[in-house]
Amino acid sequence: MFEHLEKYAGDPIFGLNEAFHRDVHPQKVNLTIGLYYDNAGCIPVLSSVRTAEQRRAQEPEPRTYLPMEGLAPYREAVQKLVFGAQHQALQAGRVATIQSVGGTGALKVGADFLHLAYPDSQIWISDPAWDNHHSIFQGAGVPTHSYAYYDPATKSLRFDQMLAELRELPPKSFVLLHPCCHNPTGVDLSPEQWLQLIPVLAEQELIPFLDMAYQGFGAGLDEDAFAVRAMADAGLVFLVANSFSKNLSLYGERCGGLSVVCATRDEADGVLGQLKAVVRRIYSSPPAHGGHITSAVLNDPQLYAAWVQEVAGMRERIAFVRKQTHEQLSAKLPSYDSSYFVKQTGMFTYTGLSSRQLLALRERHGVYIIDSGRISVPGLNTRNIAYFTDAMADVLSA
Ligand code: PMP
């Protein structure tokens, strides 16, 4: 009955991650999947999360369904974190927010909602992209296209070309943007560039969809939300997906948020109803455990303060590893410009290594990097940086 279906090729990142685990190389290094590892190579359980979980375990409650839109205190905490507690868009009641099934769930609900609102619109996504952006929107019936973003020659942003291309889009087109820590390149717009982009989005009547999966991993929790807040300040109508997978290290608990910034409170009320309708027909209600834990951390002043410190610790470790890698590579291979390690931010760095170099890294050194040359930086730590930079120097000088 189903033989006619194409075989699913699997996700190449997950596939390579599995190959890494099968490899018996004694010094193997895994830089494939976008997970934050601590300096010991472990995925942390944050102390703020542990405390919230202990409290919940001591006072067990019936495991009922959450409302379709999620827990009210969770949704309020998402709004404060994403927009800043005092933002006038929140005070005016113009933002409709739901608790989502991770960042991916927020993108899916947002994609279905946008398709419902504007069935003829299409979406433009950065080149290169997090591949799932294309899949999610195509799955929602929204045709996808690319806009110029990253220049491999300079390892930096093609900002003028990006602006020029966005200026040509039909009104009501959707534009997927990363407010911080762009996946896969680690190259972001500066605050000045966001301020140049916003009038173009407004003049063209484009509908931005901001995907913020790494808030706090770039310059800081507030700094990383600059684009979101600047767009809300400018009165744009737009969507924001946020994820707690990385910054709360809660990957499998599937915690995120989707916010739609509207023109009026009335519009936001109507939008919230439509978001609930979309949720109802996909998964009905979001996960309760992660919802309660996230809400407890974000709403308890002490746990929140502890969490802010923990996010700072993760961010600072990434910055440290980037700096060390750059310094060691500069010393080992002075002719190679590795400054991109410190210019790019967040979890990812785009190395520009060729397929031949990536294969050599894997086969000769047990260093696993995905085919695009994207490195997930937190796979590096004080025990493997020297080994990694030796391996890089070897394949780059061959
Ligand atoms: N957007 C981007 C850009 C991502 O990198 C990721 C995580 N890999 C997501 C969304 C999805 O987040 P989550 O894992 O919370 O579904």
UniProtKB/TrEMBL annotation:
Residues 27-391 form the Aminotransferase class I/classII large domain. The keyword RNA-binding does not apply. Its cofactor is pyridoxal 5'-phosphate. One of its GO terms (molecular function) is pyridoxal phosphate binding. GO terms for biological process: L-phenylalanine biosynthetic process from chorismate via phenylpyruvate. GO terms for cellular component: cytosol. CDD domains: AAT_like. It comes from the Bacteria. Coiled coil: none annotated. Keywords: Aminotransferase, Pyridoxal phosphate, Transferase. Homodimer. NCBIfam families: PRK09257.1. Belongs to the class-I pyridoxal-phosphate-dependent aminotransferase family. This is Aromatic-amino-acid transaminase. It comes from Pollutimonas bauzanensis.
